[in-house]
Every structure is written in structure tokens, then in C-alpha cells.
């Protein structure tokens, strides 16, 4: 195989046949020595750039449109009257021979920048218009609600004023009697009024509702009294009886303590 290295014996034999002090051949001469690609790229940079510029200029002359902004603007203004210049430019928008992708992308972005800007402006204007319409509609609805509430309150006041005037014109005899009599000794205070700490009570409360089982106990007590038994008030002690019981309790406690002391001393 050509990529395989020959045996060492074969290589040594060829070296002996060719000799040791031999002039270099044409293949290994300095002028035919290969230069690395990176070095050749640096040495031939000016030539490569010149060739690329000439190729690009030839392509732009053939198509009639170059990458320069001035030429593109002139062509756009010339075709702006008919309106078909932009369409032809967009349809003919393709990469040129010798043009890199970066330059082509930049050219596409520049050609579409005006259209994108117009679309953004129109969308923002539409959004502002919709927002203004929504605000106007909400303000209108709010005014309508406030007007309706004011009308309802005015109607209620009007009805209340009419009722008061009717009551003043044709008062009932009970109301007239109450007005003539004036305020009572103990007036009733409305429960909706706030109760404060230092309020003075005008009268004791009237407990109209009886406690639970009061009627039943009263009936049982009445029947027992009629039958010769005890009444409900029989087991209730008076204040004098309570005082006497308290004195007796104190005396019994004192005597008990004295007795305990005597036992402890004896």
C-alpha cells in the first residue's frame, strides 16, 4: 500500500544505493518547498481582497444595484412614482455572486427596516386609539352610573318630602295628642343611638319576658299553697335573717378557735 512505510531493511538498502552525500532533487528544492496555508493567506491577503472586490463590482454592474445606500435610495426614489419599484426590489433581493452572508443579511435588514418601522408605528397608533376608546367608554359609563344614582336619591328625597307634607297637612289624632302632651317623663331612646360609658339612665329597665319555667313553677307553687304546702317565697331568706346567720357563723368560728387553743395549751 502506498501509505504504508517500507521496512527498515528496504529503507537502509535504498539509502546505501543512493549514497550519503547527494545533492537534493527537484522535488525537495527550496523554490519548490510547500508553504503553510496560514502563511500563504497572509502573504496573498492583498491579492485576494483585490480579486474579491473586482468580482463584487462586476456582479453589481451586471444587476444594476450595489450594496451602497446612495445607489439603493436613488433607485427607490425613481421607482416610487409607479409603486412597483419596491416589489421588484423585494423579488430581486437575493445574494450576489461573491457576497458574504453577513453583507447579504445587512442589506436585507436595511431594505426591510422602513417597512418594519411603519408596521410598528401603525400598530402602536392603533393600540393608543383602542386605549383612548376604552377610557372614553369607561368614563361615559361612570358618568351614566353617577347620574342614575343622583336621580334615584333625588326621587327618594322628593317622595320623603311629599310624605312629610301629607302628614303635616292631615295629622292623625294620636300624633296630634302626642304633640300636645309633649315629652314624657321617661323617653325611649332609639337603640340605634351609640351607647357611651358615661350615659345616664333615665329609668330602670322593664323586664317583660319571664324566665324559663317561671309559669310552671308558679303554677306548682300555687297548687301546693292551696293544698296546704309551702309557697315559692317560703324558702327565701330576708336580709335580717342573713345578718343573723353571719353573726352566728362568726361566733361559732371564734368559739372553735378558742377550744383548739385550750387543747393545745393543756
Automatic annotation (TrEMBL):
Residues 77-86 have a biased composition (Gly residues). Residues 9-19, 106-117, 130-153, 178-188 have a biased composition (Basic and acidic residues). Residues 1-245 are annotated as: Disordered. GO terms for cellular component: nucleus. InterPro entries: CCDC137. This is Uncharacterized protein. The lineage of its organism: Eukaryota, Fungi, Dikarya, Basidiomycota, Agaricomycotina.
Amino acid at each position: 500500500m502506498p501509505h504504508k512505510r517500507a521496512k527498515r531493511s528496504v529503507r537502509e538498502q535504498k539509502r546505501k544505493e543512493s549514497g550519503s552525500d547527494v545533492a537534493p532533487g527537484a522535488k525537495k528544492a527550496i523554490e519548490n518547498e510547500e508553504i503553510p496555508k496560514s502563511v500563504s493567506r497572509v502573504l496573498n491577503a492583498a491579492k485576494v481582497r483585490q480579486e474579491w472586490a473586482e468580482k463584487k463590482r462586476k456582479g453589481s454592474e451586471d444587476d444594476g444595484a450595489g450594496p451602497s445606500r446612495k445607489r439603493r435610495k436613488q433607485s427607490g426614489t425613481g421607482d416610487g412614482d409607479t409603486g412597483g419599484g419596491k416589489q421588484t426590489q423585494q423579488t430581486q433581493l437575493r445574494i450576489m455572486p461573491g457576497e458574504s452572508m453577513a453583507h447579504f443579511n445587512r442589506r436585507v435588514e436595511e431594505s426591510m427596516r422602513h417597512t418594519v418601522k411603519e408596521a410598528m408605528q401603525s400598530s402602536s397608533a392603533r393600540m393608543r386609539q383602542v386605549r383612548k376608546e376604552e377610557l372614553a367608554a369607561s368614563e361615559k359609563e361612570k358618568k351614566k352610573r353617577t347620574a342614575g344614582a343622583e336621580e334615584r336619591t333625588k326621587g327618594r328625597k322628593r317622595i320623603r318630602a311629599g310624605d312629610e307634607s301629607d302628614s303635616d297637612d292631615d295629622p292623625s289624632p294620636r300624633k296630634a295628642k302626642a304633640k300636645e302632651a309633649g315629652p314624657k317623663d321617661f323617653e325611649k331612646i332609639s337603640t340605634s343611638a351609640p351607647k357611651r360609658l358615661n350615659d345616664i339612665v333615665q329609668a330602670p329597665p322593664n323586664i317583660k319576658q319571664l324566665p324559663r319555667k317561671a309559669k310552671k313553677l308558679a303554677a306548682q307553687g300555687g297548687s301546693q299553697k292551696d293544698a296546704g304546702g309551702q309557697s315559692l317565697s317560703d324558702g327565701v331568706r330576708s336580709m335580717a335573717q342573713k345578718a343573723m346567720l353571719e353573726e352566728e357563723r362568726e361566733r361559732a368560728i371564734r368559739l372553735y378557735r378558742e377550744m383548739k387553743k385550750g387543747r393545745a395549751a393543756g
